[in-house]
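Q: Give me the 3D complex with benzoic acid.
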Amino acid sequence: MEKAAIDALLKEMQAPTRGEPTPRVKAIVDRVVRDLFHVIEEFDVQPDEFWTAVNYLTEAGRNDEYGLIAAGLGFERFLDVRLDEAEAKAGLTGGTPRTIEGPLYVAGAPLVKGEGRLDDGTEDGEILVMHGQVRDVDGTPIAGAHVEVWHANTRGNYSFFDKSQSAFNLRRTIETDAEGRYRFRTIMPAGYAVPPEGSTDTLLKTLGRHGHRPAHIHFFVSAPGHRKLTTQINIDGDPYLHDDFAFATRDGLIPPVERNADPEAIAAAGLNEPFARIAFDFELKREADALPAAEVQRLRAEAA
Ligand code: BEZ
Ligand code: FE
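A: Here is the predicted complex, encoded as structure tokens.
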């Protein structure tokens, strides 16, 4: 078809016929439809192929996999890059790098003050102690900041989504102490992989890609007057460290992992077996006017 003929068809189809359209939504939907018409034309997409795509999207929705697909196709990372750029343009520099939230946060995890244990003790994993300080970009410690932390178990599965785990296993909110410090004991997570043969897996394989993430730990760090930080740390040495299907690995988010087998270090940590230790400080940017919100609104799971 001639481009002019497609455009004439679109003009007719996209003319409002009832009431007042919502301008921004209409502009975006019209643009997406126009672009898809041109994709169909350019690739000579046949009706069977079009309906295969519609069926795929229907199934992906039923499987609740859009959060995975958004990450796997790079949309979530792209939104992060855009937020980074908006902050840089507003003169907000420094601070701990953000990286994607992913779809596996659950609201309402228990709050602990200063320190806590994340695992319920049922799994025999390597003990990990992680600790550090929350500061502003000038280096001032932030007391009372909230460090929300969540991660997968030794099989790469997250509580709530994996019904075999106890409620809020490997999830807590830690309130920093008077010196802005947090500390937690947990078990070393394994890397995540998208559900085998699911919608995301099928798509990624068709694109010649895998659906693995390196082992990682998620954080929301928040304090009044500061931009909410959404980030993760990756576990150094993981084979997928620089091959994350969700594009979330960033410089500055791969802290060293110290392994301790020395009896004195074990005793000093209040443990009775060798353990791993990660020290990591968070730096929050100060809130500023006229910036897109750092706190992103999206549908999140909430445990009863
Ligand atoms: C995750 O963080 O585990 C995750 C991120 C994106 C898609 C799926 C999972
Ligand atoms: Fe994750």
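A quick observation: The CA atoms of residues 74 and 253 lie 19 Å apart.
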